[in-house]
Amino acid sequence: MAEAGAGFVEQLKACAVWSWTYLWAVWFFLVLFLVYVLRVPLRIHDNWSAVSMFLNTLTPKFYVALTGTSSLISGLILIFEWWYFRKYGTSFIEQVSVSHLRPLLGGVDNNSSNNSNSSNGDSDSNRQSVSECKVWRNPLNLFRGAEYNRYTWVTGREPLTYYDMNLSAQDHQTFFTCDSDHLRPADAIMQKAWRERNPQARISAAHEALEINEIRSRVEVPLIASSTIWEIKLLPKCATAYILLAEEEATTIAEAEKLFKQALKAGDGCYRRSQQLQHHGSQYEAQHRRDTNVLVYIKRRLAMCARRLGRTREAVKMMRDLMKEFPLLSMFNIHENLLEALLELQAYADVQAVLAKYDDISLPKSATICYTAALLKARAVSDKFSPEAASRRGLSTAEMNAVEAIHRAVEFNPHVPKYLLEMKSLILPPEHILKRGDSEAIAYAFFHLAHWKRVEGALNLLHCTWEGTFRMIPYPLEKGHLFYPYPICTETADRELLPSFHEVSVYPKKELPFFILFTAGLCSFTAMLALLTHQFPELMGVFAKAMIDIFCSAEVRDWNCKSTFMRFEDELDIPPAPQSQHFQN
C-alpha cells in the first residue's frame, strides 16, 4: 500500500510538472478569467479608482525619492552581480534560481538521464573531459624556500594558494610514505610532518627525524649483538627529511643542492636494500616502491638544481640517465624538463628526437609538447616570414606546416599566446597545473618565453597566425578540430590553483549574464528619471499623470475628472453651473 501511495503521489507530481511546463498559457488565462468573474466581490473597480486617485495626488518629490531609491538599489545589485561574476564566473541571481527555484518547479537532474541514454561515443568524450580536468603535478615547479618564499619576502604576496599546497601535501604522502613507516621512528615522524600545515612545524619535524636517527645509532650499538652492530652502523639517515629541508628551509639553490646530495646518499642506500628484499612480501614491495619514488624525485630535483645554476649539460646528462634507469616512471614527466634544458642548449635536433618519442597520438599531450613542436617548425621559416609577402604569393609548404603546428598548439591551450606575446603579465607558476588551462599556460611561458625570443621571427609568426585557430574550431565548442572539445571546468580549477591577485584567463570568453545587463539598464533608466524629475518637476509630474491616465479606463478617468472639478468648486466656493441640455442628454 505504501509503495502504491508513493507511486500515485509521484504520478500526480509528474502531471503537475507537465502541466506547468506545457500548459502555462492555459493557467495564465484561467487566472485572468477568475479575476474577471470575481471583479464585483473583490471590488476591483473601487480599489483601482482609489489607487489612481492616490497616484494623481502625489507630488514630484515623491517621484524623485522613488526613482532615486530604485536607482540606488539597482546600482548596488549591479555592483554585487559584477563582483560575483568576476570572482566566480557566473551570475549570483542565476545560480540561486537554478539551485533553489528549479527543483521547486520540477527541474530534472540531467546527469542521471543523460548518463543512462548516452551513447558510447558520448561516454568516451565525457571520460576524456574528466581526465583533462585532472590536476597534474607541475614538472617544472620551483623550490619553496629558495624561490617561492623569496618572492613572498620581496613582494609580500603569497604565490601559492592553499588548494595548491594541499595537493602537494597529498602528493608527498603518496610518494614518500608507506604502511610500514611506523616501524622506523624517523619515517613515522616524517609521515606526520607531511600532514602539517605550518611550514615551521614541518621543518622542525625534519630536524627531529635526523636527530632521532643519530641518537638511535649511538645508543643502541652497545646493547645488541656484534652481528647487528654492523647493520646499524650502515643505517642511512632519513632521505625524506633532507628532501623537506631542501625544498622549504634552503634559501638558495646551492643550499638546496647540498641537501639533495645528502638525501641522494641516504636514499640510494635505502633503495638498494629494499631492492634485494622486494620479493619477500607485500610490505617489502611497498617499501621498495616508496624508495624508488624517493630516489627518482631526488635525482630529478638535483638535475633541476644543476639547470638553475647554469650547468645545463650536466642537467641534461642526469635527466637522460634517469629516464634510462627508470623508463616506466612517466608520472614525473621528466621529458618536459629535458626538453626545456635542450632548448636552452639550442640542441634542436635532440629536441626533435625527444618529440618523436613523446608526441604520439596514444600519449597524453601537454602545452610543452605542442608548443615545442610548433617552435621547431616555426624556426625553419620564421626568419624570412613576412605577412605582406605571404598574402601576395601564398604560403609555402614549410610555412603551411608551421601555421598548422601553431593552430594545433593554440587549440590545445589557447591561453599561452597572450603570455608569449607579453599581452598578459606572468606570475610564478603554481606547483600543480591543469592541462589546457591558464595554470599550464603560465608554467609553460615562464620557462619557454626566452626560447621563443631566441628564435628570430618566431613570435612574429605566432602573432600573425594564432588567432586564426578560432575560425577553425566549431562554435559552440561541442566538437574539437584536432583534440577533444575544450573542457568547461578549467576556469573553476584555475581559480583554485592561481593566486587571487592574478586575473585568470577564460576561454571561451563568457558573455555577460542577463541579470547584469538587466540591472545595468534598470539602474541607468531610474537614475535618468530621478535626474529629470529633480530638474523638471512640473513637466515630469504631467508626464507621470499622463502615463497613469493611459492605463486607466475611460470611465475611471471621467470619474476622476468629476471628483477633481467638484473638489475645485468646494475650495473656491463657486456655485455649480447649470447643466446644458446637451450634457443632460
TrEMBL record:
InterPro entries: ST7 (IPR007311)
Predominant location category: membrane
Pfam family, one: ST7
Keywords from the UniProt entry: Glycoprotein, Membrane, Phosphoprotein, Transmembrane, Transmembrane helix
CDD domains with a match to the protein in the record: ST7 (cd11557)
Localization of this protein: Membrane
Domain of life of the source: Eukaryota
Entry's transmembrane regions: 22-42, 62-85
GO cellular component terms, semicolon-separated: membrane
This protein's record includes keyword Nucleotide-binding: no
Family: Belongs to the ST7 family.
PANTHER family referenced in this protein's UniProt entry, alphabetically: SUPPRESSION OF TUMORIGENICITY 7, SUPPRESSOR OF TUMORIGENICITY 7 PROTEIN
Protein name: Suppressor of tumorigenicity 7 protein
The species this protein was found in: Pipistrellus kuhlii
